[in-house]
Amino acid sequence: MLKGLHVIEPGNLTVQDIDEICSLAEQIIVDPVAFNDVCRGKILATLFFEPSTRTRLSFEAAMLRLGGSVLGFADASYSSSTKGETLADTIRTVSSYVDVIAMRNPKEGSALVASQYSAVPVINAGDGGHHHPTQTLTDLLTIRSLKGGFEGHTIGFCGDLKFGRTVHSLCKAMSRYKNNKFVFINPPELSIPRYITEQVLKPAGIETREVLRLEEVIGDLDILYMTRVQAERFFNEQDYIRLKDSYILDKEKMKLAKDSMIVLHPLPRVNEISPSVDQDPRAAYFKQVKYGMYARMALIAKLTGAL
Ligand code: NCD
């Protein structure tokens, strides 16, 4: 039962919930018009305290395509948080106007706090360097659609695995399925956080490996998950400048990969995937954008109890 649930991190959804959401998203993809009206009369608030293009707009497009309405802000400098209002009070207020809230905030843990004060479901659209569960639904729907399921994959996570919340959430979700292997490709300064290794990967018995060079492992991968170095989370600009171009996926590296490998990226990309890779049939990051909207349509319909 997904109605009324807060989605703060992937662990809030069971594997059955994920199947239910992906199956509904697949039905919507086949016949979107049939779902045009299911959220008629319902309102989504998008509260974005941090920049976003895809996540906010895909949430809004999702609700509009379900026949519902949206309100909110894309820039918190116009909200009462600049007057010193607490997040708790903002959420108490907004949740008395709407049926579901999608919130992005730079502070880790903020979505959990919001859920404690909300009368309606809160969806975490990214809390600092912590989690981003709807990007994970996007990634899962893409993987299920293009690779046929969630088991038996060798997945390479490349780039900023320390601050990349999409990586943390996808690791947590994929570690629940059988026979997956994770390869972490990162500079030592940007390793996956210990809490993910200790609390998620080890208990799940996931086989992991950490390497420095993408060329060394790209040929073993079924899924390559590229990420941007998260400039906004660095304490020191010099470190960012030194690390930002650690990995650039180009045509030469793609020659070393399997024909069946897919390349995912939550986007925005900066330099880490050369535009020359975009034409490669294995480049799936723009398809992934579209899957994101359908995944969010399915999630909103379920959480609001519309379907
Ligand atoms: C990601 C995010 O915000 O964490 N983008 C997104 O939501 N699609 C990845 C990123 O900003 O690098």
TrEMBL record:
Keywords: Pyrimidine biosynthesis, Transferase. It comes from the Bacteria. L-aspartate binds at K83, R165, R228. The keyword Acetylation does not apply. GO terms for biological process: 'de novo' pyrimidine nucleobase biosynthetic process; 'de novo' UMP biosynthetic process; amino acid metabolic process. It is an enzyme of class 2 (transferase). Residues 152-301 form the Aspartate/ornithine carbamoyltransferase Asp/Orn-binding domain. The keyword Transferase applies. SUPFAM superfamilies: Aspartate/ornithine carbamoyltransferase. Carbamoyl phosphate binds at R54, T55, R104, H132, Q135, L267, P268. Pathway: Pyrimidine metabolism; UMP biosynthesis via de novo pathway; (S)-dihydroorotate from bicarbonate: step 2/3. Pfam families: OTCace, OTCace_N. Residues 6-144 form the Aspartate/ornithine carbamoyltransferase carbamoyl-P binding domain. Gene3D superfamilies: Aspartate/ornithine carbamoyltransferase. It catalyses: carbamoyl phosphate + L-aspartate = N-carbamoyl-L-aspartate + phosphate + H(+). One of its GO terms (molecular function) is aspartate carbamoyltransferase activity. HAMAP family: Asp_carb_tr. Catalyzes the condensation of carbamoyl phosphate and aspartate to form carbamoyl aspartate and inorganic phosphate, the committed step in the de novo pyrimidine nucleotide biosynthesis pathway. Belongs to the aspartate/ornithine carbamoyltransferase superfamily. ATCase family. This is Aspartate carbamoyltransferase. It comes from Candidatus Treponema excrementipullorum. The gene is pyrB.
